[in-house]
Protein: Ubiquitin carboxyl-terminal hydrolase 38
Amino acid sequence: MDKILEGLVSSSHPLPLKRVIVRKVVESAEHWLDKAQCEAMFDLTTRLILEGQDPFQRQVGHQVLEAYARYHRPEFESFFNKTFVLSLLQQGYHSLDRKDVAILDYIHNGLKLIMSCPSVLDLFSLLQVEVLRMVCERPEPQLCARLSDLLTDFVQCIPKGKLSITFCQQLVRTISHFQCVSTQERELREYVSQVTKVSNLLQNIWKAEPATLLPSLQEVFASISSTDASFEPSVALASLVQHIPLQMITVLIRSLTTDPNVKDA
Structure:
C-alpha cells in the first residue's frame, strides 16, 4: 500500500482523482497489516509530512498517518519511539534542520496519537530535558511559539522541580533576544501573536509552580538593567508585565533594592 501511495502523490494524475484514491488508502487503514508494512507506511507518511513538495503531499501524509496510527496503535508506538524523537530534535530529518518548526509540529501531532500508550511517559521525560536544551539555544520567536503550543497541550513535558526554575529563567532570556525587523502589518501581527503565546506559557508555569515566579522576574530585571552597551533587551519582555500578580510587586521591589548584585548604574 505504501508503494501505491508513493507512486500516486508523485504522479501527474488530476488532483480530484488523487483525492479519491487517497480516500481509499485511508479507508484501507482498518485492514490487518504486519509490522513491516505498517512501518513502511509510517516511514512514507513521515517523509511526506516533513519533506512533501507541496501542501497536497503534506496533507496526504497527515491524513494517512493519523488513520494508520489509529488502527495500528502498537505498531505506531513502536515507530514513534524515544530514539526516533530524540534524533528528530537533535539531528533533524534528512534535509530538514532540527530547528525547523515542522519537526516540532510533527512531534506535537505524534504525542496526540500515542497519548493512551504507556511509552508516552518515556517521551514526556525525554522532552522535559530537550525543551530546556532548546530554550538555552535561544530559538527564534516562531519556533519558541510552536514550542509553547506543544507545552500548553502537554504540560507533562515542562521541566519539573528546580529545572522548572531554570527553564523559566532561560525562557525569559530567550524573550529578551526576540526581534522583529519587519514593518509589514501582517508580519508584525504574527510576531505579537508569537510573543503572546510564549508569555502565556510563562504565566501558566508561574501559576502551577509559584516558586518559579520570583527567579523569573529577577531575570527580567537583570536583562533590562544590563549595562552592556552591545545588548539591547527586546521590548517583548513588556508582554510579561501583565502577568505579574499585584501582590508580588512589593516583594519584587524589596528583593531588588536589597540585592547586593544590583549596582547603582
Summary: DSSP finds 13 helices and no strands in the chain. The mean pLDDT is 91.
